[in-house]
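Supplementary Text 2. Reproducibility record for the structural model of the 330-residue chain.

All settings were left at their defaults, and a single model was retained for analysis rather than an ensemble. We include the record here because the model underlies the residue-level annotations in Supplementary Table 4.
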Amino acid sequence: MVHANAKLTPRGRLELARCVVEDKWPLARAAERFQVSATTAKRWADRYRQQGAAGMTDRSSRPHHNPSRTPRKTEQRIIKLRLTHRLGPARIAGRLGLNPSTVHRVLTRYHCPRLTCLDRGTGRRIRRYEHDRPGDLIHIDVKKLGNIPDGGGWRVTGRGPGKRNRATTPGATRDRHGGAHLGYGYLHTALDDHSRLAYTEILDDERKETAVAFFQRAHAYFTGCGITVRRILTDNGGCYKSFAWRDALTAAGITHKRTRPYRPQTNGKVERFHRTLADEWAYARPYTSEAERRAALAPWLHMYNHHRSHTALGGLPPASRVTNLTGQYN
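Retained model, structure tokens:
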């Protein structure tokens, strides 16, 4: 590709070189005719003598030799550490006494994928997939979340009260109005694979009866959005291996699929959603009570489904892939 300041195109170079080589023009006359220096005219004439018309195209400006390049043996050590220990540039640089930018250049030169693109267990590149239609696959999972006592948790009251609250967490307590003080809340989430549309509820446990009841409400929600659920993917939790769960899905005509044991990456979309949920809702600000945090869930979920840009969807919200979803522009 000719650079922006070049006076000669490959065709002009060829004409100049033929004037000098074949028509025997003096270099000065050819340089004046084509408005270039005599040195440039000589360079193209010499290249025409050596390579013919094929030599008139641009060459790479990359040098043939680079004395300052990292030695090949050092590059091999960098790649070995990356493959065997899955370390980032900074940690590899610390082990080998190199600059992190040098390690990064070597990893880029050898087309090493980012660590976020690799499976932590095997080191293999993660296979990304996405089903073609809403409802083809619904991811369902549960995330356990510690309840916030009245007055706030350790983010509000400090580490001392927070430790006392945690010591009594295993048995949940409630006040006279039935509000949860300590213990855990269980986030049950159903997430559509194609659109990333999410339905989440905070429930008291993850028993089979609770999971089945959640599925029925989630199924009704997706049906109301015009989504026909065809298959559901869960992990191997006890509630998802129960007869009650199997019978509920069979009655709805839905195929159930479970992930491989110890492979949460298979259900990675809902796992990633729970991380977003924690960052942007559960721990986004210091709540003073569990009731305050729970009241903020529905508005955040609406924002996520209808307004929040999603990187996997080209910056569009999940609602953009569900044409029959109400409340999209509220």
